[in-house]
Design brief:
- The protein has helices spanning 3-15, 62-65, 75-88, 106-123, 182-194, 217-222, 287-290, 293-307, 328-335, 348-356, 425-436, 454-474, 477-483, 488-495, 498-504, 516-529, 539-553, 560-575; strands at 23-27, 48-49, 56-57, 93-97, 126-130, 145-150, 156-160, 171-173, 202-204, 230-234, 237-240, 244-249, 252-256, 311-315, 361-364, 371-377, 380-386, 396-402, 407-414, 584-587, 592-595.
- With 596 residues, it is an alpha/beta fold.
């Protein structure tokens, strides 16, 4: 046996009694579940018939998927694959940090309930959910719909709730497409963390008055109701807060923080008007101003946990630490403050507030990225682990293994092969044929239907997303026009003469194999997958990028285009060299993390 592994096992044995195994928790974030094979309670439409399977299917168009930061359809199969993986590993605790549904629609919430219940009954997996900005979209139920479901003839089909009017000519009307509020989500999913279970050793909310010493299931149940879990977000406006803490196994407290903050737009409006609330996508920056009771609650919980020898693991939908590996300032300088989702970057005060409240380990989603962030404030350290989405590149989930209260291991489980991921491809073929007839539309790349694995499918999704949305929306038009298809060799020659390159022994011709389009796509790969992106970028090209980073960093040229490129390479360098984000150990005693 490897000496390092042997030493690690001996240490684990000394930290835990022989009869107590390390606790494992799987984190599945941003599943964005849409029930392909669901049904509506108020009408008979079950979808369009898939010629490959003969099954009726309710799905969105490929065109809509490739313009979105997430897919809508194939993640259904990825979710089942992830749950099968977790079951095979014998893990029985799964935490889901929000956006577990497409948009909180009743038929999707019912479908999610059905699947979670199946895995609970078959494998004994206990699920603990917290809310994201898609579930619910607003604090109260509101009429809604989508224009981009796929119709039988390959053209878009609108599915709308009763009072919602969309753009599609062909439409289905059902109340089950409305966006549920907290009340409906709590009612349907209360068995998955939002309510206590008899087998839980402890369960409480920010509004509960009891402590672990005098805990009773009956009292916890009495405090779990919808009307007992509201706070005043702004004077006269009361909205729900579904935060809770639960002890699923002895010694571990899962802290499920509801980070949604729905702020009213018009203070003169009726507080019950569902359309009068802003979305919650900004995240924790609004907690500091409109949901301060959460910080006080976290402080109370961590203090009580310390007194009673409990290990606290927190999870929320939103990140508590900047997730751009120090590149946020440079991104803002290059693209402006309203691009690259910069409005979602939490202020440093967020991390400081929660670290000082006693929080040390936090899992988050929302950004659909793989990342690890660390902040230290004197003797306090907070580690923020970003859980990737199953509905975006790189599709993965995280596993936390608690070796002891101070030592924990985090692994990233990437989904490569997913059974049935290509089941819907014949329906997309029909959509593509219909799209070809409309000369005003930009066609998506049909080669995505040739992908052989789910991982490759999601990489192709990113490639199309960058082409169709990210480049047009985020980047300065003058930069994209100048960059065009400039090759790596031309980038090199902008800041180095041929004589300088010859003197350094650099073969400029070797840089011809890629261009700026490839560079920008690789930049987004690192933003999404962190160190795991290296598997999708040729090794030789990565070396060439590092050389370009160096020569551009040393360049004193004042040409605006070169200054922009200098920023690009600086951002690239920062995003590709962050803290460990694949397999690492957290040592709370030494306040450090180590790559494994």
């Amino acid at each position: 046996m490897n000496k390092g592994i042997f030493s690690f096992l001996m240490l684990a044995c000394s930290l835990f009694p022989a009869q107590q195994k390390p606790v494992q928790i799987a984190f599945l974030s941003d599943v964005h579940f849409q029930d392909l094979y669901g049904s509506f309670s108020d009408q008979g439409f079950k979808g369009i018939t898939n010629p490959k399977t003969g099954k009726p299917t309710i799905l969105r168009t490929m065109d809509s998927q490739l313009h979105s930061t997430r897919i809508f359809n194939e993640n259904y199969f990825a979710f089942l694959k992830a749950l099968d993986d977790i079951a095979a590993k014998g893990i029985t605790i799964v935490a889901m940090p929000g956006d577990f549904s497409d948009d909180g629609q009743a038929y999707n919430i019912r479908g999610l309930h059905r699947i979670l219940d199946q895995y609970y009954k078959k494998y004994g997996i206990n699920f603990y959910l917290t809310t994201g900005n898609h579930d619910p979209v607003g604090p109260f139920r509101q009429e809604a719909g989508k224009d981009d479901f796929l119709g039988e003839d390959g053209n878009p089909l609108g599915i709308y709730s009763r009072e919602y009017r969309g753009k599609a000519n062909r439409k289905i009307i059902t109340g089950d497409i409305a966006e549920s509020g907290y009340l409906e989500i709590l009612h349907e999913l209360k068995d998955f963390g939002f309510y206590p279970k008899k087998e839980n050793l402890f369960w409480s909310t920010p509004f509960s008055s009891g402590s672990v010493e005098n805990y009773s299931y009956e009292q916890a149940l009495a405090n779990a109701g919808y009307d007992k879990r509201k706070y005043e977000v702004t004077k006269g406006f009361y909205v729900p807060d579904l935060s809770y803490v639960v002890e699923p196994v002895k010694g571990v407290w899962l802290l499920a923080i509801d980070g949604n903050i729905y702020i009213p737009k018009n203070l003169s409006e009726n507080p019950g008007n569902p359309s009068n609330y802003k979305g919650a996508g900004i995240g924790y920056n609004n907690v500091l101003t409109h949901k301060k009771h959460l910080i006080d609650w976290v402080k109370r919980i961590t203090s009580e946990a310390k007194r009673n020898g409990k290990t606290v693991i927190a999870f929320t939908h939103y990140p508590m630490i900047d997730f751009n590996d120090g590149a946020t300032g440079e991104i803002k300088k290059l693209l402006g403050g309203k691009k690259w989702q910069l409005e979602r970057v939490p202020d440093e005060e967020v991390a400081q507030a929660f670290a000082e409240a006693g929080l040390a380990v936090h899992f988050a989603g929302h950004m659909h990225i793989n990342d690890t962030g660390i902040k230290k404030f004197k003797e306090k350290m907070l580690v923020n682990i970003q859980v990737p989405s199953l509905a975006a590149y790189l599709p993965a989930y995280k596993i936390l293994t608690i070796q002891s209260p101070d030592r924990m291991e985090v692994t990233t489980e990437v989904l490569h092969d997913v059974p049935n991921f290509n089941e819907l491809f014949p329906l997309y073929e029909k959509e593509y044929q219909a799209l070809q007839k409309d000369k005003t539309k930009i066609l998506w790349n049909k080669d995505i239907l040739k992908t052989k694995s789910y991982r490759d499918f999601m990489l192709f999704h990113l490639k199309e997303l960058v082409r169709l949305r990210m480049i047009p929306d985020d980047w300065p038009e003058d930069f994209i026009k100048k960059a065009g298809k400039i090759s790596g060799e031309e980038l090199l020659l902008l800041v180095q003469t041929k004589a300088q390159l010859k003197e350094k022994g650099i073969d400029a011709k070797a840089f011809r194999r890629w261009n700026v389009e490839d560079l920008l796509l690789d930049l987004y790969k690192f933003q999404s997958a962190d160190e795991l992106a290296k598997n999708d970028i040729p090794k030789e090209r990565r070396k060439q990028y590092r050389l370009l980073e160096e020569v551009y960093a040393n360049s004193r040229a004042e040409d605006p285009f070169i200054v922009q490129l200098k920023s690009v390479f600086k951002i690239f360098s920062q995003l590709s060299s962050g803290d460990p984000a694949d397999h690492f150990e957290i040592d709370l005693e030494k306040q450090e993390i180590r790559r494994l």
